[in-house]
Amino acid sequence: MVSQTQPTLPSSCLQVLQTHTAPINTLAFSHSGGTFILTGSSDRQIHLSRTEPSSSKTTSTTSAITNEPSASGNIPTAPVITTPIQRYTSHGYPVLSIAVTQPNNHFASSSADRSGPFLWDIQTPDTTLRRFGGNSPSPHTSRITCVSFAADDSILASGSDDRSIRLWDMKSRDARPLMILEEAKDGISALVTRDTEIISGSTDGRLRSYDARMGRCTVDVQPGPVTSLDLSRDGRAILVGCLDGKIRYMDRENGNCLRTFPPDAKLGGDEGYVNKSLRLQSCLAQNESLVLSGSEADGRVRAWDVLSGKQIGSVEVSSAGKVLSVVKWREGSEIENRRGVWAAGGVDGVVKVYG
Question: Which domain of life is it from (predicted)?
């Protein structure tokens, strides 16, 4: 259920993470309104940082910079973080995906390593807990583009350019995957999960939904290669990004397209949004009232109203106009007195957090 009030895009820069030395490929917030963010980069590292500054004062590892003007016209300051809390450095290739368990104590990551997705204890950066498929007779045979936890974190799903999804048992030490799903005709580019359901997008332009309990697969055809997926909380709708330059909000029951972002030109479409060649990752935000996405064109993150389909704002994240490849939202928590925030990163290796 989306909000009936006019949503707005939070645009105050809370902090800038300059801890990586190469493009940002993936972001993951801690769950339940958590205060941490994991960032994965082509520098082969994963960094753990705070979502927001721990205090209003900067430390010896921070400075102040942001290009977001305040209401008074002055340029406010946001701390620039140059040293993460933890660095995880076991990957030998660019990090492509991160997924966090619900208790926030473990996370999984994937890269071009064909040895399988890695499982980490968030407090132990020096070594991995498991390397799924590393000693398996049936590992992935190409880079692993996406990971997601399912069935109350008891299953880890991994998707690969080898056209397969593998399901790994988190509670067993068996090196073999629980199940191998090989219906895709091209590489798997995105995964989302809900309970025992695994939903994949692939570059063959197909959206496949698997019921791991019933062994059933349903297929929806998309107008282009799929670049990103985000599932609504009730599981009835899904946000699908494609390389035809459109993001679609789909009804999962009947396969109908509820909204397209940006809308057609005659309905006020935005020519500044471009997604023709890269894997841009968009998301639902603000209690599913907004769609957020970066662009290949101009270094801006745009927000569209889910109800009207209209663009309601944008933020210049990269002043140099660099590609913004991934945008993630974290809901606020009234109980924990935390506000909703979003983060974006791209080819310049910088992650900015807004609220």
Answer: Eukaryota
Span 20-26, average pLDDT: 98
CB atoms within 10 A of CB 338: 18
Secondary structure class of 212 (helix, strand, coil):
coil
Tokens representing residue 298 in the block: 């101009």
| Backbone φ and ψ of 92, nearest 5° | -100, 0
Structure tokens at 94: 């660019």
CB neighbour list of residue 223: distance below 8 Å, 6 or more residues apart: 205, 242, 244, 246
Residues 6 or more apart whose Cβ sits within 8 Å of residue 307: 2, 4, 289
166-178 confidence digits (pLDDT tens)? 999 999 988 899 9
Amino acid symbol at 43: D
Q: How would DSSP label each residue in 130-161? A: EETTTT-SS--SS-EEEEEEETTTTEEEEEET
Q: Per this entry, what is the length of the chain?
A: 355
Ordered by where they begin, the domains of the chain are 13-354 (2.130.10.10)
Which letter does DSSP use for residue 272 in this model?
A: T
User: From CA 148, how far away is CA 331, in angstroms rounded?
Assistant: 19
CB distance 42 to 26 below 8 Å:
no
What is the tens place of the pLDDT at every residue in 73-112? Answer: 444 578 999 999 999 999 999 999 999 999 999 999 999 8
Q: Are strands 106-111 and 24-29 parallel, antiparallel or unpaired?
A: unpaired
Instruction: Assign 134 a pLDDT band (cuts: 50, 70, 90).
Output: confident
